[in-house]
Amino acid sequence: MASTGSTPFPKWQLAILLGAPLAIGLGYLYMRSRFEDPEKKKVAELKAKTTISLDNEDNAKAAESAIDRAMKLKAAGNRAFHAGEYDKAIELYNDAIEACPSERAVDLATFYQNRSACYEKREMWEQVKEDCTFALKLNEKYVKAYLRRSRAAEKSGDLVLALEDVTSACILERFQVQSSLVNADRILKALGRQHAREALDKRDPVMPSKHFIKTYFSAFSEDPIAKVNVDANETCGFANAKKALEVQDYDSVVKACTEEIDAEGKYKYEALLLRATFYLLLGRHEEAHIDLANVITSDAPTKIRVNALIKRASLFTQLENTEKCLEDFSTAAQLDPDNSDIYHHRGQVYLLLERMDEATSEFAKAVELNPNFSIAYIQKCYADYRHAQLHKNIGALTTVRADFERALELFPRCADAYILYAQVLSDQQEWGRAEALFDAALAVDPNNATLYVHKGLVQLQKSTDFDKAVKLINKAIDMDDKCDFAYETLGTIEVQRGNLRRSLELFEKAIRLAKTELEMTHLFSLKDAAAAQLKVSERWGLDWTVS
Ligand SMILES: *[C@@H]1O[C@H](CO)[C@@H](O)[C@H](O)[C@H]1NC(C)=O
Ligand SMILES: *[C@@H]1O[C@H](CO)[C@@H](O)[C@H](O)[C@H]1NC(C)=O
Ligand SMILES: *[C@@H]1O[C@H](CO)[C@@H](O)[C@H](O)[C@H]1NC(C)=O
Ligand SMILES: *[C@@H]1O[C@H](CO)[C@@H](O)[C@H](O)[C@H]1NC(C)=O
Hints:
Structural class: mainly alpha
Order of helices and strands: HHHHHHHHHHHHHHHHHHHHHHHHHHHHH
Largest sheet: none
Bound molecules: 2-acetamido-2-deoxy-beta-D-glucopyranose
CATH topology of the domain at 223-338: Serine Threonine Protein Phosphatase 5, Tetratricopeptide repeat
Shape: globular
Low-confidence stretches: 1-41, 47-55
Distance between the termini: 39 Å
Number of helices: 29
CATH superfamily of the domain at 223-338: Tetratricopeptide repeat domain
Helix content: over 70%
Radius of gyration: 28 Å
Number of strands: 0
């Protein structure tokens, strides 16, 4: 499977729920608090372990003058560096390295590290990495060297090393330095994306579940394909495709559409749009792009072109090309300014981009144009909530709650209304009310395993009772062993409990079930963060597990 354009509820939810918008934040958040524990001492000890004494009295004097000379060369190197004379500085640091007695490991590490600064200015990444590696061999707790090697590794495309090094630095800095955390997060996103692409390339296209496809189509209130009425006695390719859609025989759709397109039939544009939609659902991005572009540049009716533009915009979001994505939305809005789908989907993109002001006004417009569209209505409520929260606007919070209450009245069968409102309430620490809402959602949608995951999350926020939460989430897996949200959540719980190895297995399971590229990128980021933390912890003998 793979990228499916916009899904009604993307996976930013979990991160928001746990209060950590950054993927790496999940583990770090907890580890940070663990530094108040004995582990804190361990890192302090590790940091202190780097003073080296002279053990040979006889050589002490000679060494002293040698180190003096090296220090002078270094000082000259620093002056040259600050004057922007990097080649000269490199020469001086070379001399300092040569002059430095080998037992002065920490000083020697500094000189290598100094020389790597010059190479960094010259953008000579291999040399930067090499010198930092020397420095780290001599002083394994050298934060600056980790950070610099991480930058060089990132620049030269070695994201695994970049992540490992920035993780080492974050641990040594006790997660207190914001810039390192931000760097870690950026590297994680890029690495997650890279791993997601690699995994998708290897994966055979798999049709998503029937439920997923149904939900996908339900996110469009003005779906031009649903609106075409094909006479019952018609036998063309598109008629067959429509029939296949109706009976959920999704594997036949692409072939039937291709027949219509090849025959240049009367529904060729509808067929192109529908085929593109299934290419999207199957993660066949390139083919989806070609079909969508053909629809968009054709003389097909406006609603068809607009729907193609919305889908292509979502595809651009998946590929993180925000500019092109917004361009398509804006073209769509010019063509069909009263089409609520445009604003609803653009709102989702803004939500993902954390552009809350724009997100709220998009959803408001979508609802204004189509007040009966439950998904848009509820997303509007939720976006309004995030907006109010961001601006600490108490009055707006009250309004949002009234809006949610109204949503429950308007759409009593819509599980998502209960779920998002419950999330809002648990954010506000109204646990009892939130739990009651999840139970109400279960009454509406009793086979929905993700509801137990949500209940587990409330449990976790309410009492940090890991065992109780895990029990609820395991219930979700018993109901549906393909519930990726359950594996993802369990994985993050194990990170928080310090069981990094177990978390890796769980993230792996979630990745195998992931449906969209965004979701996969997010999951790989979580897994890569845990893997890097595990590696560094093992190297230094740090143990994070909750005893
Ligand atoms: C060289 O290392 C010293 C000690 O860490 C530092 O104060 C100085 O700024 C470094 N110089 C350069 C050019 O990085
Ligand atoms: C299909 O049936 C309609 C009446 O329901 C008729 O007018 C039309 O000519 C038929 N078309 C074909 C292709 O048989
Ligand atoms: C919304 O639904 C109500 C009742 O089903 C209906 O009367 C009204 O016309 C609908 N509004 C729109 C904009 O579709
Ligand atoms: C379960 O509820 C969630 C709400 O978070 C919804 O998005 C999802 O489609 C539902 N799944 C099933 C299988 O009904």
